[in-house]
Write a structure and sequence with these properties.
211 residues, mainly alpha, Tetracycline Repressor, domain 2, 10 helices, elongated
Length: 211
Protein backbone atom coordinates (compact mmCIF):
# COMPACT_ATOMS: atom_id res chain seq x y z
CA UNK A 1 0.00 0.00 0.00
CA UNK A 2 1.87 3.09 -1.26
CA UNK A 3 -0.85 5.75 -1.28
CA UNK A 4 -2.01 6.77 2.23
CA UNK A 5 -5.20 8.29 0.81
CA UNK A 6 -6.15 5.01 -0.82
CA UNK A 7 -5.56 3.11 2.42
CA UNK A 8 -7.56 5.68 4.40
CA UNK A 9 -10.47 5.30 2.00
CA UNK A 10 -10.39 1.50 2.23
CA UNK A 11 -10.08 1.54 6.02
CA UNK A 12 -13.05 3.90 6.37
CA UNK A 13 -15.06 1.70 4.02
CA UNK A 14 -14.10 -1.38 6.03
CA UNK A 15 -15.28 0.27 9.24
CA UNK A 16 -18.64 1.22 7.69
CA UNK A 17 -19.12 -2.23 6.19
CA UNK A 18 -18.30 -3.93 9.49
CA UNK A 19 -20.86 -1.74 11.26
CA UNK A 20 -23.57 -2.67 8.76
CA UNK A 21 -22.83 -6.33 8.05
CA UNK A 22 -20.73 -7.60 10.94
CA UNK A 23 -17.57 -9.62 10.42
CA UNK A 24 -19.10 -12.99 9.56
CA UNK A 25 -21.19 -11.63 6.67
CA UNK A 26 -18.60 -9.10 5.51
CA UNK A 27 -17.49 -9.42 1.88
CA UNK A 28 -14.96 -7.61 -0.24
CA UNK A 29 -17.82 -6.32 -2.36
CA UNK A 30 -19.39 -4.70 0.71
CA UNK A 31 -16.16 -2.75 1.19
CA UNK A 32 -15.66 -1.94 -2.49
CA UNK A 33 -19.22 -0.56 -2.69
CA UNK A 34 -18.18 2.13 -0.19
CA UNK A 35 -15.19 3.26 -2.24
CA UNK A 36 -14.72 4.43 -5.83
CA UNK A 37 -12.95 1.16 -6.60
CA UNK A 38 -14.12 -2.17 -7.89
CA UNK A 39 -13.75 -5.45 -6.02
CA UNK A 40 -10.91 -6.47 -8.34
CA UNK A 41 -9.16 -3.14 -7.70
CA UNK A 42 -9.52 -3.73 -3.97
CA UNK A 43 -7.64 -7.01 -4.31
CA UNK A 44 -4.87 -5.19 -6.11
CA UNK A 45 -3.96 -3.91 -2.63
CA UNK A 46 -4.98 -6.96 -0.57
CA UNK A 47 -4.80 -10.62 -1.50
CA UNK A 48 -7.72 -11.66 0.69
CA UNK A 49 -10.35 -10.53 3.16
CA UNK A 50 -8.07 -11.83 5.91
CA UNK A 51 -5.15 -9.65 4.81
CA UNK A 52 -7.43 -6.60 4.61
CA UNK A 53 -8.80 -7.31 8.09
CA UNK A 54 -5.30 -7.64 9.52
CA UNK A 55 -4.40 -4.24 8.08
CA UNK A 56 -7.62 -2.81 9.52
CA UNK A 57 -6.64 -4.03 12.98
CA UNK A 58 -3.27 -2.30 12.52
CA UNK A 59 -5.11 0.84 11.44
CA UNK A 60 -7.12 0.77 14.67
CA UNK A 61 -3.89 0.85 16.66
CA UNK A 62 -2.92 4.10 14.94
CA UNK A 63 -6.40 5.46 15.59
CA UNK A 64 -6.04 4.65 19.28
CA UNK A 65 -2.67 6.39 19.45
CA UNK A 66 -4.12 9.49 17.79
CA UNK A 67 -7.09 9.65 20.14
CA UNK A 68 -4.90 9.23 23.20
CA UNK A 69 -2.59 11.98 21.94
CA UNK A 70 -5.58 14.35 21.80
CA UNK A 71 -5.90 14.06 25.59
CA UNK A 72 -2.22 14.68 26.35
CA UNK A 73 -2.82 18.17 27.76
CA UNK A 74 -5.60 17.06 30.14
CA UNK A 75 -5.05 16.18 33.81
CA UNK A 76 -4.53 12.41 34.30
CA UNK A 77 -7.84 11.93 36.13
CA UNK A 78 -9.74 13.49 33.23
CA UNK A 79 -7.70 11.56 30.66
CA UNK A 80 -8.54 8.31 32.42
CA UNK A 81 -12.26 9.01 32.37
CA UNK A 82 -12.12 10.17 28.74
CA UNK A 83 -10.59 6.87 27.59
CA UNK A 84 -13.09 4.87 29.64
CA UNK A 85 -15.98 6.73 27.99
CA UNK A 86 -14.56 6.19 24.51
CA UNK A 87 -14.62 2.45 24.97
CA UNK A 88 -17.98 2.26 26.69
CA UNK A 89 -19.92 4.68 24.53
CA UNK A 90 -18.14 6.25 21.58
CA UNK A 91 -19.36 9.26 19.62
CA UNK A 92 -22.18 7.56 17.70
CA UNK A 93 -23.84 5.07 20.03
CA UNK A 94 -25.64 2.95 17.40
CA UNK A 95 -22.63 2.71 15.11
CA UNK A 96 -20.34 2.16 18.09
CA UNK A 97 -22.39 -0.85 19.18
CA UNK A 98 -22.55 -2.24 15.64
CA UNK A 99 -18.79 -1.96 15.28
CA UNK A 100 -18.09 -3.68 18.58
CA UNK A 101 -20.52 -6.45 17.65
CA UNK A 102 -18.38 -7.03 14.55
CA UNK A 103 -15.22 -6.93 16.65
CA UNK A 104 -16.74 -9.50 19.01
CA UNK A 105 -17.23 -11.79 16.00
CA UNK A 106 -13.66 -11.13 14.94
CA UNK A 107 -12.31 -11.94 18.39
CA UNK A 108 -14.08 -15.29 18.18
CA UNK A 109 -11.85 -16.11 15.18
CA UNK A 110 -8.62 -15.34 17.06
CA UNK A 111 -8.12 -18.81 18.59
CA UNK A 112 -8.07 -20.25 15.04
CA UNK A 113 -6.25 -17.46 13.20
CA UNK A 114 -2.71 -16.59 14.21
CA UNK A 115 -2.63 -13.23 12.39
CA UNK A 116 -5.83 -12.04 14.05
CA UNK A 117 -4.63 -13.30 17.41
CA UNK A 118 -1.33 -11.44 17.08
CA UNK A 119 -2.98 -8.15 16.09
CA UNK A 120 -5.55 -8.40 18.87
CA UNK A 121 -2.81 -9.19 21.37
CA UNK A 122 -0.92 -6.14 20.17
CA UNK A 123 -4.06 -4.03 20.57
CA UNK A 124 -4.55 -5.30 24.11
CA UNK A 125 -0.94 -4.50 25.00
CA UNK A 126 -1.27 -1.01 23.53
CA UNK A 127 -4.42 -0.34 25.54
CA UNK A 128 -2.84 -1.63 28.74
CA UNK A 129 0.16 0.61 28.14
CA UNK A 130 -2.16 3.57 27.60
CA UNK A 131 -3.88 3.02 30.93
CA UNK A 132 -0.59 2.38 32.72
CA UNK A 133 0.92 5.63 31.45
CA UNK A 134 -2.12 7.64 32.50
CA UNK A 135 -2.06 6.04 35.94
CA UNK A 136 1.69 6.60 36.29
CA UNK A 137 1.30 10.25 35.25
CA UNK A 138 -1.43 10.60 37.86
CA UNK A 139 0.90 9.31 40.56
CA UNK A 140 3.73 11.59 39.40
CA UNK A 141 1.40 14.60 39.45
CA UNK A 142 -0.06 13.71 42.86
CA UNK A 143 -3.54 13.11 41.44
CA UNK A 144 -3.51 9.37 42.13
CA UNK A 145 -2.27 7.54 45.18
CA UNK A 146 0.60 5.08 44.69
CA UNK A 147 -0.64 1.71 43.44
CA UNK A 148 0.21 -1.19 41.12
CA UNK A 149 -0.51 0.41 37.74
CA UNK A 150 -0.16 -2.84 35.78
CA UNK A 151 -2.83 -4.58 37.83
CA UNK A 152 -5.12 -1.55 37.81
CA UNK A 153 -4.81 -1.28 34.02
CA UNK A 154 -5.67 -4.98 33.68
CA UNK A 155 -8.68 -4.52 35.95
CA UNK A 156 -9.95 -1.55 33.97
CA UNK A 157 -9.65 -3.38 30.65
CA UNK A 158 -11.42 -6.44 32.05
CA UNK A 159 -14.26 -4.22 33.30
CA UNK A 160 -14.60 -2.45 29.94
CA UNK A 161 -14.47 -5.67 27.92
CA UNK A 162 -16.96 -7.35 30.24
CA UNK A 163 -19.42 -4.46 30.05
CA UNK A 164 -19.23 -4.26 26.28
CA UNK A 165 -19.50 -8.02 25.75
CA UNK A 166 -22.52 -8.38 28.04
CA UNK A 167 -24.23 -5.36 26.57
CA UNK A 168 -23.95 -6.82 23.08
CA UNK A 169 -24.60 -10.44 24.04
CA UNK A 170 -27.69 -9.75 26.16
CA UNK A 171 -28.84 -6.51 24.47
CA UNK A 172 -28.69 -4.77 27.83
CA UNK A 173 -27.60 -1.13 27.76
CA UNK A 174 -27.36 -0.97 31.55
CA UNK A 175 -24.06 -2.85 31.61
CA UNK A 176 -21.91 0.07 30.35
CA UNK A 177 -23.73 2.50 32.66
CA UNK A 178 -23.34 0.24 35.69
CA UNK A 179 -19.68 -0.49 34.98
CA UNK A 180 -18.91 3.19 34.45
CA UNK A 181 -20.60 3.98 37.75
CA UNK A 182 -18.54 1.25 39.40
CA UNK A 183 -15.30 2.54 37.90
CA UNK A 184 -16.03 6.10 39.01
CA UNK A 185 -17.58 5.27 42.36
CA UNK A 186 -15.29 2.48 43.50
CA UNK A 187 -12.06 2.16 41.53
CA UNK A 188 -11.67 5.75 40.40
CA UNK A 189 -12.39 7.39 43.74
CA UNK A 190 -9.94 5.06 45.49
CA UNK A 191 -7.19 6.24 43.15
CA UNK A 192 -7.64 9.96 43.84
CA UNK A 193 -5.45 11.69 46.38
CA UNK A 194 -7.24 13.48 49.20
CA UNK A 195 -6.71 16.88 47.63
CA UNK A 196 -8.19 15.88 44.26
CA UNK A 197 -11.05 13.99 45.92
CA UNK A 198 -11.92 17.11 47.93
CA UNK A 199 -11.89 19.26 44.79
CA UNK A 200 -14.23 16.81 43.08
CA UNK A 201 -16.64 16.82 46.02
CA UNK A 202 -16.70 20.63 46.08
CA UNK A 203 -17.26 20.73 42.32
CA UNK A 204 -20.15 18.27 42.59
CA UNK A 205 -21.68 20.25 45.45
CA UNK A 206 -21.43 23.42 43.37
CA UNK A 207 -23.19 21.80 40.46
CA UNK A 208 -25.98 20.64 42.75
CA UNK A 209 -26.44 24.15 44.18
CA UNK A 210 -26.77 25.64 40.71
CA UNK A 211 -29.52 23.23 39.63
Amino acid sequence: MTDPDVRESIMNATYEALCEHGYTELTAQDIADRTDRSKSALFYHYDSKEELTVDFLEYLLTWLDDRVEETASLPPAERLLRVVDWFLYGEDTDQHESFHTAMLELRAQAPYNEQYREKLRKSDERLRTTFERILEDGIDEDQFVAHDTERMAALLIAALDGARTRQLTFDNDRYPEDVRAGIVGAIFEQLLTDEVATDRRLETAGETDDD
